[in-house]
What does this fold into?
Amino acid sequence: MTRAVLTPQAEDFPAWYQDVVARAELAENGPARGSMVVRPWGYAIWELLQADMDRRIKGTGALNAAFPLFVPMSFLEKEKQHVEGFSPELAVVTHGGGEQLAEPLVVRPTSETVVNHYFARWVQSHRDLPLMLNLWNNVVRWELRPRLFLRTTEFLWQEGHTVHATYAEAVEETRRMLEVYRRFMEETLAISVAVGEKSAGERFAGADQTFTCEALMRDGKALQMGTSHNLGHNFARAFDIRYSDADGVSRHAATTSWGTSTRMIGGMIMVHGDDHGLRLPPAVAPHQVVILQIDAQQGTADAARHLEAELSGLGVRTHLDARTHTSFGRRSVDWELKGVPVRIELGARELTSGRATLVRRDDRSKSAVPLDGAARAAAALLDEIQRALFAASRRFREEHTVPVTDLDEFARRVADGGLFLAAWSGTEESERILRERTGATIRCLVDADPPAPTCLVTGLPAAHTVLIGRAY
Amino acid sequence: MTRAVLTPQAEDFPAWYQDVVARAELAENGPARGSMVVRPWGYAIWELLQADMDRRIKGTGALNAAFPLFVPMSFLEKEKQHVEGFSPELAVVTHGGGEQLAEPLVVRPTSETVVNHYFARWVQSHRDLPLMLNLWNNVVRWELRPRLFLRTTEFLWQEGHTVHATYAEAVEETRRMLEVYRRFMEETLAISVAVGEKSAGERFAGADQTFTCEALMRDGKALQMGTSHNLGHNFARAFDIRYSDADGVSRHAATTSWGTSTRMIGGMIMVHGDDHGLRLPPAVAPHQVVILQIDAQQGTADAARHLEAELSGLGVRTHLDARTHTSFGRRSVDWELKGVPVRIELGARELTSGRATLVRRDDRSKSAVPLDGAARAAAALLDEIQRALFAASRRFREEHTVPVTDLDEFARRVADGGLFLAAWSGTEESERILRERTGATIRCLVDADPPAPTCLVTGLPAAHTVLIGRAY
It folds into this structure.
């Protein structure tokens, strides 16, 4: 192949992203602005993410449930900051069954209000606590600048909601879920993330604290991959969630919420993808190994099927591509585009030599391995590729995280991308100035010594160390 | 327990249904009319249904995908019968992001229109066919008489959509999925169903043929458990889905759709439930075995945990109920309500005698088994219970399916419930008369000799044999 299938990343990263989403058949724009059609390859990735995340969430003791899509407007209005934060993004149903509704229904942008309404009914005693629920569903937030997976009007996600007896336990849960998310990003998505608390200006509407996992894309922009919110007593007061403690005293509970979405797929594309397409971590690759049957000869077909059975027997998600009516080159390019971690090429020549060709997607290296050991060799490669992708992501993030102590210098360098460690005073005013002057935002507070004694923006005494960068 | 926890079925079946849904903590009404909150026990059942059905659907070669929640009104209007059928049930979004929308968006009542729009883009050649997709999502149909699980404004379901080269292949797919559904109902839900084609009056809006699985509830009413539609060329013409055949000739494709929903849970409740609560088929029971630890003595706790490990090792979904601060009686009643197939009662007395008490939920029989064989005995019971529930469902349906040849007699007997085999002329007029006079509908056409030479309703020559009954 001489012609590039995708716009090169270095030439135009957003165009590369659009190309790879289309050419790898991950998703397309839906008919209504900002909506998305997730095609089978993209959805199969989502199912693998979901299954893995679901197992981790259930491991914390949370149970799955379902709550309604439509939320009465009056529910949203019960928590003042919450409704202020979400109002500009709402989709509103005004007609149902051919008639105008007495009260407009909001299509859920998130479910805190309705879930906490039911928490108030279900929680009576300290014995009912903690109550931990998780919902897999779709939510709608009106987007002015939609982008597939990253920012769509409707997206698929999980939202966790928990009630606890004390504020301290809510804080603990918020941090526990942040850690669940961090490990998921690293172990499953092979993405290295910075974790920390959001500044007040970037907090979830109605939360006392928001914690985030921030990843660094290959174009140097940050992406928020998941958030965990300590809602303190805010929703418990708004919805009057009370329980009687061991002494029979009635107390307000404390709540949390936490979520991750199809946006993670966008992050995975932009962290691992290269000019040849996706590079999927084996943990979430719908096909971990594709056997590319080169010709239609009986011997080749038999050997390919034998190898397929061997790989499946090893627990490897295997696909046999026997479309010999399509050219070998086109099929290779397609599987590269789709990010399949390992390809095994098998034809008459390989049968004669007794060696199959193994191709790694991550570094595109090829090796010839004895046919009778090919399945085990491919299976072993999967772990290696998972580790290599994570190592590359961590190295990239570390190499592109630099301290900065001068605002002018930062303003010049920010367009090159990357994350910047800076001292920050903690004032709202400084966040505004930072954004207006540089287009960058505080991604999160981090647990590190500040690189300077005074705030990057205001020169006031440093109160926090923060990671700053431009973000999706 | 002397006081009945539930309204007895014989006294008031709808009240019994409401009671069991509430007391088994399956679901509650949502805040907006007709909406539903599915609680963890209900949702865990749904997850097991989903996983099993998903495996069967993927086994036919269909792939999962996701399509948008919002459908432009203009899409619905492309297929005339479709929009006529669904218009009265639509929820309409008129405002988004704080502004009135130029074109109102419909919250999908089903996704034929949007899916077929994309089919037209994706299908070019006969090599692209068949194209078979399945979506797990939520849909909204405005309901005037909502009832939890059975008829809710929003429900969870799977909707399959397929494109084929020929009409004959679409018919074949329609029947294949009907068979997948029938086997699922029987093997997994342990529900015996009648299968057959719907009459024209009960057809899906826009279909050439609709096939259905009809189950018989314990109150004698029928419930449509799943449907499979041959859409023929209707949607392919409306959305111009064309492919070039092997000779390069451009042809219209043929399509199908098929769906099952959370309604199946309602069916399961009403087919298997009794005056003590749910009776879950082991295949979809979140806990297949509950170990009821009677006292808090160390020896009891150790033995209970040992048994739990043994059962889990046998692949049984096991729950250890060690809430010894709650009375044994209350806990027994709770697990009966929730329909757990097998209970093992274990306390100091059982340890002394070396025999645990096994309780079957289906027939409520108790047996004492040696402690060291209790896990295997419980596991073996699961298969037996699954079979027994199905056999009871089949027996009930068979015993309550009777031929009828006289309309007056039918009108008298229909209120007692059951399914009636009748001869039918096939005219629309006769369906209308039947409904108005008896409140019954034709559930489906069946492949059997008519019980009389002339139509039950009109006296015209019989064209079909049909099953008639009142339905949910």
